[in-house]
Amino acid sequence: MKPAIHPVILSGGTGSRLWPLSRANLPKQFLAPLGGPTLLQATARRVDGGGFAAPILICHEDHRFIASEQLRAVGITPAATLLEPVGRNTAPAAALAALLITAHDPAALMLVLPADHAIGDTQAFRKAVEMARAAAEAGALVTFGIAPGYAEPGYGYIRQGDPLENAPGCFGVGRFIEKPDKKTAEDLIATGGHFWNSGIFLFPAALFLEELERFEPGVVEHCRKALETAQKDLWFRRLSLEIFAPVPARSIDYAVMEKTTHAAVVPATFAWSDLGSWAGLWQTADKDADGNMKHGEAIALDTRNSCLYGDGILVAALGIDGLIVAARDDAVVVAPKDRAQDVRDLVALLEKTGDEKHLTHPLVFRPWGRYRTVLHADGFLVKRIEVNPGGKLSLQMHNHRAEHWIVVSGTARITRDNDTIDLKENESTFIPIGMKHSVENPAENPLVFIEVQTGEYLSEDDIVRYEDVYGRLDDKNRS
After folding, report:
1. How far apart are CA 465 and CA 271, in angstroms?
2. Residues 433, 311: Cα–Cα separation, whole Å
3. How many CB atoms within 10 Å of residue 204?
4. For the CA atoms of the chain, what is the radius of gyration?
5. Which value, to the nearest 10 degrees, does the dihedral of the CA atoms of residues 41, 235, 478, 231 take?
6. Are 301 and 287 in contact (CB under 8 A)?
7. How far apart are CA 409 and CA 427, in angstroms?
8. I want to staple 7 with a disulfide (CB 3.0 to 4.6 A). Which of 55, 90, 283, 411 is the partner?
9. Could you give the CA distance from residue 416 to residue 140 in angstroms, rounded to a whole number?
10. How far apart are the first and last CA of the chain?
11. 3-state class (DSSP) for residue 120
12. Is the sign of the CA dihedral 438, 444, 446, 449 positive or negative?
């Protein structure tokens, strides 16, 4: 029986080119832009069973509960979940996983998977992994090349080298080509023998560490220290900001693959997209007879080749061609499809102006459930809050706001200072400024209630927390 392959799921990106769908506090890997499971859930399912070990998940500490809950919802328990305090690109993340894996199995293979890719055929994907296994077991660092369907300047490219004698279907890497302009991308495709660089890798974990230490010794040194000093936090391993922040930010390609003599490529036959932009989403999605992708609430008249995405708001297009119209309930993007890569420049502009819509999202996930901001104006804020069965918000107090709670459905067990009351549908209560309070769901069905905040200061950091079943006493901005 062949040894198991250890999947490593990297869930640290923000997906800024898919704004306003993707935000820093709810990036695209936790969403389902094409419907069905979220991208993270689909990635984990792809390597569940069938000769794969339990995955190692690496994500930002702010996303720990949503990542954990999404995997729990599809019945997958990671072997370990590492929490990064800051993003440091893919090479340090892969190094952390490789250090963990080789501590127990020095000869192990690790499969590095970004959490935000769409892959159309799981069986074809697994077949490509098995093909790559032969090369990896023979000492190759393998990347997966995708046959390019069109000239995409947003992707890196790989030139196919000579066939590997001991791994049928695998090739050496002739050259890595960083994201070219469109004309160069067209020339590469016309020449043949070039692939999109998928960012998916199969490595002998020990060889990857050896090569990374040779080319970027600082990455391995800092990652080893970060793991040694990591703190256990519930079922997570939390890396120290002081130790991890100095890790050099490097991609796997830049740190190792473009320098090593062990690089190999497997031409993959599965449909793939990193869904890195609205144009990429349009390319991947089903389209109508006029070439329009329509998602959610979207209608079109005399419109062609456009990406129409309505989430919480109706998008109505008339007489346009080749445009992106992407709307959420708090933001709208309109741009030509050939400028899709530049949406991240809009996000950078938002950041400069101090607008937080690049960070925050009306829908926010918490370990106990979720809430959506319905309306925010001077002096008041309205939320729709959903608490999972058995979920409980922390015991807390606010110095600047009062709260009114109205139960929509389910049962709310509410603590108000030293009193505990149960509220049912259409019942309500009031939490004045300075009162300790909490709410939990003691029932088997979700609890839904409306929260109306009033006061001069309504920020999430106005929380004094006293007790929390999720171990978040140091997180001042977490409900």
Report:
1. 47
2. 35
3. 24
4. 24
5. -130
6. no
7. 10
8. 55
9. 62
10. 48
11. coil
12. negative
95: phi then psi, degrees, rounded to nearest 5: -65, -40
Residue type, 171: F
User: Bridge partners of 38?
Assistant: none
Strands 5-11 and 56-60, bridge-based pairing? parallel
Q: Under 8 Å CB-to-CB from 292, ≥6 apart: which residues? A: 300, 303, 304, 305, 306, 307, 308, 317
Closest by alpha carbon to 319, among 304, 336, 334?
304
Helix (H) or strand (E) holding 465: strand 464-467
- Enter the DSSP assignment of 54: P
How far is C-alpha 333 from the geometric centre of its chain's CA atoms? Answer: 21
Distances (CA, A) of 378 to 50, 205, 372, 412, 454: 55, 54, 18, 28, 9
- The answer to whether 141 and 198 are in contact (CB under 8 A) is no
What distance in Å separates the CA atoms of residue 266 and residue 145, rounded to the nearest whole number? 6
* Torsional sign, CA 277, 281, 283, 284: positive
Structure tokens at 135: 């090369």
Q: What's the pLDDT tens digit per position in 336-369?
A: 999 999 999 999 999 899 888 888 888 888 889 9
Tokens of 241: 């900001």
Secondary structure (3-state) at 155: coil
What digits encode the pLDDT tens for the residues 264-282?
A: 999 998 999 989 899 999 9
Question: What six digits make up the tokens of 270?
Answer: 């599965």
Instruction: Give the predicted TM-score (pTM) of the model.
Output: 0.88
The two beta strands, 231-233 and 236-238, are antiparallel
Assign residue 302 a region (left: φ > 0; alpha: ψ between -120 and 50; beta: otherwise).
Answer: left
Q: What angle do CA 133, 136, 137 make, to 5 degrees?
A: 85
Percent of residues, the chain, with pLDDT higher than 70: 98
In total, the chain counts a number of residues equal to: 479
CA 272 from centroid of its chain's CA atoms: 17
Give residue 360's identity as a one-letter amino acid code: T
For tokens 């032969």, name the residue.
134
Q: Which residue has the tokens 């809009």?
A: 346
